[in-house]
Amino acid sequence: MTPQDPSTALRTRTVGDIAATLPGATAIFRKFKIDFCCNGGLTLDGAAQRRGVDPVEVERALDALSTDTGAATAPTAMGSDALIDHIQTRYHEAHRRALPELIALSRKVEAVHREHPRVPAGLADVLRQMESELEQHMAREEATLFPAMRRRSEEGLAVAIGELRHEHDDQGAQLRSLERLTDDFTLPEGACRSWQALYVGTAQLADDLTEHIHLENNILFPRFVTAQSGA
Ligand SMILES: [Fe+2]
Ligand SMILES: [Fe+2]
Question: What pLDDT shows up at residue 3?
Answer without folding.
Answer: 44
